[in-house]
Structure prediction request, 744 residues.
Amino acid sequence: MKKYTKILSLIAVLICIVFMSGCAKNITVEYQIDDTVITTQQYAKNNKIKLAEAPTKEGYTFVGWYDKATDTKVEEKVKVKGNLVLVGKYEITNYQIIYQNEGNQVSNPTTYTMFSEDITLNNPTRDGYVFLGWYNGDTKVEKIVKGSMGNLTLVAKWEVVNGHKVVFKAGVGEFSDGTDELVIYVIDGGELVYPENPVVVDKNGRVFKGWYIDSEIILPGTLVTEDLVLRAKYVNSDETYSLIYNLNGGTMEGSTEQIYFKDGFLALETPKKEGFEFLGWYDNESFNGKNYRYIDENSTGNVELFAKWVLVNYEYVDTIFLELIPDEITDDLYMPFNYQGVELAWKSSNTSILSLTGVINQSHQDQEVTIELDITFEDEVFSYSKKVTIKRIVFEDITNPVAGYFYTTGVTIKSETVVNNLDIAYYAFVKVQSNGAVTVEGLSSFNTFVRDGLTLRKKGIRMVLSVAGGADNFSNACRNVGPSAVADNIMYYVEKYNLDGVDIDWEFPADSTDQQYLNVLCQSLRAKLDILGKGGTPYLLTAAIPSSQLYQRFDLKTLNKYLDYVNMMSYDMNASGRASHLCPLFRAFNDGNLGYGIDDGIVKFTTAGLDANKIIVGGAFYGKAYTVKGTGNYESKYPALGAPAELNSLQYASGTVTYKYISKNILTDSSYKRYFDNEAKVPYLYSASKKIFITYEDVESLQLKTEYAYENGMGIMFWEYGYDDNNILTDAICDKMAELKNKK
Prediction:
């Protein structure tokens, strides 16, 4: 009987295990907006999905969540069968414009969006009347500015007019036909248009200054309400500047490259573009700010002006497509939602390479993308498609690289000094799992790193993936699936996100088998990176290796064949039971430690077979805190240095204190005094009253390391950016290296 009872109990346990396994929430639903993960959900199989609330986007209407794999809309409460990636889709909200007009019909947009460029409204005409403007209630509307929202009803207002005579008298000058007088007629309330500038034919250097009534200049665009007699004035000037007209597809009678005189006056020419109406000259391609009609005495310096147009004839719609989309793309593409009076809807065959806002993510190879464009003009849609080439990114060769690790909580660079001088940015980390899989640590931070990289890479900064996972995971992964398969899983991220290389942080190979696995892993990665980058800038392959005795676990002679650089982890050299230096530059025994130092590490690395110019020495943006338990050997000169001590959990249990913490909490504490070990070339802080010793790096020690690296043909790196305080240490490294390089 007891036997059967045990069997029944065992069966019951197995049923429970099966039931609990079925109930486990092992299905992931990931939500993405613009290729960025915003949240994830966990479900058990066949559970009904509760769709996440979509973020609001001003000027957009949310359409729904779509399965990324099938591009089908996912409805609320559908049963979850497996992992899903859902992409949120939005439509730009269109607002209606209704016109009430008794004059002739003109081409004005009947819809607009929040993202439309400024819409300058075209004016209708009416025999015997002057148009006073478009009114929305009592408010005159000359343009619908970008960012506006809401439906509009615009009413045309008019006034009865007669024509007026305008006489231009050139005085000592003359027009191109040799006359000194010109007569035109302008309707009452019409705008004054300048004729050509008269020219003074003499040797006194007189140039046209404008059309005047007595001492008052009458400017182009002045509303004419009576007969006028305008007289030319002149000024002596021989100083000139360049004036460049960017016609944006238009034509003009004069040259697009002209000169204008200082203190003179030049009415700007009106260009022509078949099928379009000219809206004015602007000093920027976004057509923001002032609409220029003339260059006057207040203008100085070289000027470039851009013509703004609006489409008025549907037969010329394709002109817009041809203007906006070149065959080859080397920089971000201008992909507006509203352009020259039409609405644009874009599609890209690969948004990870070319986004719908025109941002390109270049690889080390040329890539092809198909762009589709729907152009809406007067409620009719015109569709176009074109295959374009995204040209490969090109990096300059690196000398004396400055590199930095960016851990999950501090990935955005906030210093122009760093942006302009950093060579390599490492994302820490993606992690190798025992089964060979590779996963991102801090997915949101990784997405930010990749997004920031779109700008940073244009500055010449290589964005590199640092791969960690601990000794056991690396070893088990290589044993279970093989180094080549692990390399493939790493390469997936390099290719998908267009990164510029791989850094291996294997801490640490345990034996000769692990050492061989690392060699083969790097050999495999080198081969795959070289194939991927063939014909373009080579991808980087680097590794982080300690300069302590642990370096002996690495086969540096073999790795030298595959690696571009080795990031020497020349920190954590302190002893756990002694108040000792974290990151000494030179070997020194004042701290009673084993005499580690960067210079000693370099000798070890090069003796083991690594090229010296492949070494990037390390600097630490953190320190170690100790509680001092005795005295050192040099108390008069270096109090507490080398004394028996225990790591102190001042900030973290490991004794680690970030430079940010030190800067804000220790350097402001008057009980601490800074000492500098002139042999090791590193500082430390000591509070005699609190018996706390802190080994750390500061501006002086890091700049000495930078100078040492430069003079020895090496680079310098830091761990890690998020530990810095307002870029104090990062700027110190970058400034010093820039100073040294500029001395060449």
